[in-house]
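User: Fold both of these, please.

Assistant: Here is the first one.
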Amino acid sequence: MAYENALAALADPTRREVLEHLRSGPRAVGEIARDMPVSRPAVSQHLKVLKDAGLVADRAEGTRRVYYIDPHGLGALRRWLDQFWDEALAAFKAEVEKHEATDTNAESKGIQNVPRSEHRPRSQKRPRRRRPRTRV
């Protein structure tokens, strides 16, 4: 699966940093290496791994290669991540609908829902009323 290669490539923090450098737009290897604590050949190797994973692409500009983020490669990763978001939203929707149904049921029976903010905090208990003493 395409997303597995992308995740494996992004497991390395240096590769993530290289990808982040490309966020602002296409850059040559020398430009990326200038801002990083690794050598230019090391940046080239990281770019090769990112390219093989489909996350970046390159094009020739004169005698140099310019790298940029490949939106198609990120799309596969995004689709994989979106499935978790879709499941989370579906679960949230189901929970809201469940509570709405409970509230509607309570209203039809004449029960009012008092917002939690209107409940008296435990620290403000009602004073106890004393029973009058009866003398016998």
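And the second sequence with its predicted structure:
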Amino acid sequence: MQRTLLRTVLRRKKALLKAFLALGLVVITGVITAPRAVTVFSAAKRKLPIYCVETDKPQVAISFDAAWGADDTELLIGILEEKNVKATFFLCGYWVNKYQTEVKALYAAGHDIGNHGDTHAHGAQLDLAQNQREIQGVHDKIKELLGIEMDLFRPPFGEYNNVVLEAAESLGYYTIQWDIDSLDWKNYGVEHEVNQVLNHKHLGNGSIILFHNDADHTPAALPQIIDGLRQKGFEIVPISELIIREAFYMDHEGRQKPNR
């Protein structure tokens, strides 16, 4: 009787041991195979816009975003003409609707006309088709008004993701950011704006500088900034002349580089 009971207990222990071993094998297998699943379903590689350009030429570009007022536009055109500088102006669709005279004046003065989205929407919150409509909306307005095809796009708020960049690319656009922010939109004053640009740690060959056409202190700061850039040996060119249009790649910092 005792021997029979002992054999029964041993059989139960063996059964429990097998069950624990089987469970452990499942857990271990899951741990080992999990990274493979992550790799298979990993996110798509992050795309980058053009923040600056790698070039041996001592060239930089000045750009303006036009999304709100237009009171200083004529003044800025005059300053740029006096300094013999061609800049790049990124225009919103509703700005184009409201300030057609200023749009024509910018183009007549020889400046780049760029696309800043139709309604200044948050592109990262939109799908591909919505982003395409935002870009195409301004494109059509400028084509009707000036008869030109734009190919430079700056996302509103500087906000982007892969969908925004894919939408721009699908419509033949180069997406442009900046590596020097003048911070003119913060209205810190002329001296701060001049210092912010001329002593910026990223200022160098191929830099793209951001201004706004309606900032309070930019008309007073701009002549000093232009003179300071030239004193540092830089030639100021529009973005259309700075960027590389074929055979290039983007490094991890958003620097556009030529294929070697």
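The chain has two domains: 1-42, 52-258.
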